[in-house]
Each structure stands twice: as structure tokens, then as C-alpha cells.
Amino acid sequence: MTDRSTLDVVVVGGGIGGLAAALSIARRGHRVDVLERAERFAEIGAGIQLGPNAFRALDRLGVGDGARARAVFIDELRFMDGTTGERVAGMPLTGAYRERFGNPYAVVHRGDLHQTLLEACRATPGVTLHAGERTTHYAQADGTATAHTARGGAFTGDAVIGADGIRSAIRAQMVGDGGPRVSGHTIYRSVIPMDRVPEDLRWNLVTLWAGPKWHFVHYPIGGGEFLNLAATRDDAATEEVTGKPVGRDFVLEQFPDLGETARRLLELGADWKSWVLCDRDPLRTWTDGRVALLGDAAHPMLQYAAQGACQALEDAVALGELLDAPGEVPQRLEKYNADRGHRAARTQLVARELGSRLYHPAGEAALARNTMLGALTTEDLHDEVAWLHGGG
């Protein structure tokens, strides 16, 4: 039954990872049902960064041009001392970078990337989208896997893919590792129209200002029509917070040592919302027979390596290719897990390390960091990210 050429696959979760997985699988002639818990397919959030590895995956999914049309291509990743305003280091993203890694580095609104994938899924034969279907658990019997939903639905196929995020119901049943790990860091996000930004602050850069127990990142999104602001505080938060509105004055109070230019940018923010950042420890096994995890359900990571969406896209490509390979479905899923597991786990741990070692030190440790980064050449910086931006 599982050796036939056409498979039926159920994907749980209609976010970026789930839609990418559906597209990857269906483009090879298989049938896919996508179950989304919300009443419509949409994506919340603000800006995300896409490295060359993400564009490599998007091209293999057939949506690279659509994603590029909605992205802003960035000239440099710039690291600043947030208290002194000193430029510490910058990694150019044009010229030698693009030649080495074969693709650009860009930023995009999360909703724009999601819309690109959603449009492609709607146009792809074999993909059926189901909104308002919250998956509660899965079952396996007689060479099939079934996703059961809160409405009483039962969606059966040759495989079930859990792409249902950091609080995945599929992971909870498969692994039983409880709630996410609270990082102790709170992020404040705002998106503002670019016409509100003074001309001298409209930089085509991803800029990070690092300070003692905080950092502040900003970059253009929405084709350059908006500025994405994201300010993070290491405040030892212990409870999850998701999208809680906070006042402008409160946000400014969290960053008292911010230098003049960075403060000018932070003061532009409005309609701030806060999240307490969470991740999970790397997971060795992502599969249970005909059920597998993908994206944040498998390897949720902190934002600091800017790779969450990128790694989910890589997962989707690998999964589609391996489900098209010879053999029984459980063995194909195990191969997917084996191929993706180490790289995703390494990225999770690097993201954690960046947040503690690179972005948030104070005093002598911050000075040592600045000296170390300032001594790196452009080629050195490209070498540092080669395993990540050049992979996938």
C-alpha cells in the first residue's frame, strides 16, 4: 500500500512550515490535506529574515520569484554598540556574499511570505485546505495514520505531518515534553510606516544595537514601506506572554542606556506588543511510525540566528523529496529525521548562545566582544555563517 506512486498525506498546521510542506509534497504528485486550527488561513507577526538557504528552499518549492517580489534585499548586517553608538562590525550581503552563497539575504513581512505559499497551495492540484480544524491527537492502524480534530473530524492518510508550532498537539502526544522552555527574554515589536521615519534613519540594513541585557533590531519590510522594530530585554521573565499590548513609555523605560540614534528609532514605535520568547531543547527523534514533526513543532528556536522560518522551509523541501523516495513511509520519515536533525539542533543551540554570549554582555565582556567582532574581516564573517547560509 505504501509503495504506490501516489500518497495521501495530512499536514497539521497551516503556517509557513505547514504550507511549504504541503507544496513540497503535492508538487510531486501526492495528495495533501492541510488542517488549520484558525477559522481562516492567515499569519500574524511582523518581519522575518531570509538567508540564502531560505531562498534555495523557496526556489525548490517553485515560489522563489513570488517571495523575492515581496522581499527587501538587504545590503549589510550591522552590529552596533547600543550604548556608545559605535559601529562594531558589518557583514556585507552583496557582491562576494551573493556570489559565494548563490542567493541574496532579505527581509519580509511574515504575512507576505505566508501569502506567497498560500497562493501557491491554492493553485496546486492535490492540496486541500481545511480551516477551523484544530487537531487534538493522532492514531495509527493498518498502514495508515489519522489526525483527529476537535470538531470530530478524522483525516486519514499514509502519513501525518505535525507542523503545528511550538505548542504542537502532535509533539505533545509523540514526545510528552510539556510546555515550551521560557527563555527569560521579553521582546517588544512594532511596525510603523516608513514615511514616519526621518530620511537619515532609513537604512537598507538589518541593524542590531547591543547593550547590557538587551538588544534592539530594526529593518525595512513590506517592499520598504514599513520599518520593523524589535527590542529585546533580558528581564528574567518566567511566564509565557503572547502579543500583549504595552504602552510606548513602558517600552522606552526598558532601554534606559540606549544611545542617541538608536533611541530616536525606538521612540518612533507605536502600538507595541510584547512576547516572552520560548524555545525547546533539541529533540533526537521527530517521528513515530507514520507521523513526523516539522518546523517549530520539531525544533523551535529563539530568534537570534534569524533561522526559524528558514529551517522550516528546509524541512519542507527535504520531506517532500524523501516521501518521493522508494521504501515504506515510516523508513522515509526516519531518513528525513536523520537528514535534518543535526543541522536543526545546531541552529537551535547557536541561537541560544547568540542571545547570551554575543548580544547581551556588559562592561569588560562587552568590550571584549566588540574587539573580537571588530577584528573580523568580511571574509571571516562570511566564513562564520557559511555552514548556515550555505547549507540546506
Explained architecture:
34% of the residues lie in helices and 28% in strands. It is built from twelve helices and 20 strands. The chain has helices at residues 16-26, 52-60, 64-69, 96-101, 110-122, 169-174, 248-253, 260-266, 308-323, 329-358, 363-374, 378-389; strands at residues 8-12, 31-36, 47-50, 72-73, 76-81, 87-92, 106-109, 127-131, 135-141, 144-149, 154-157, 159-162, 181-193, 205-211, 214-221, 226-234, 244-245, 273-279, 287-288, 291-293. The strands form four sheets. The chain has an eight-stranded mixed β-sheet with strand order 6-5-14-15-16-13-18-17, sandwiched between helices. A hairpin with a 2-residue loop joins strand 14 and strand 15 (214-221). The mean pLDDT is 95.
Describe the SSE topology.
Elements: E1 8-12, H1 16-26, E2 31-36, E3 47-50, H2 52-60, H3 64-69, E4 72-73, E5 76-81, E6 87-92, H4 96-101, E7 106-109, H5 110-122, E8 127-131, E9 135-141, E10 144-149, E11 154-157, E12 159-162, H6 169-174, E13 181-193, E14 205-211, E15 214-221, E16 226-234, E17 244-245, H7 248-253, H8 260-266, E18 273-279, E19 287-288, E20 291-293, H9 308-323, H10 329-358, H11 363-374, H12 378-389
Parallel strand pairs: 1-2, 1-12, 2-8, 5-14, 12-20
Antiparallel strand pairs: 3-7, 4-7, 5-6, 9-10, 10-11, 13-16, 13-18, 14-15, 15-16, 17-18, 19-20
List keywords for this structure.
392 residues, 12 helices, 20 strands, 34% helix
Low-confidence stretches: none
Total DSSP helices: 12
Q: How far is it from the N-terminal to the C-terminal residue, by CA?
A: 31 Å
Described by the principal axes of the CA atoms, the overall outline is globular
Radius of gyration: 21 Å
How many strands, which pairing sense, and closed or not: the largest β-sheet?
8 strands, mixed
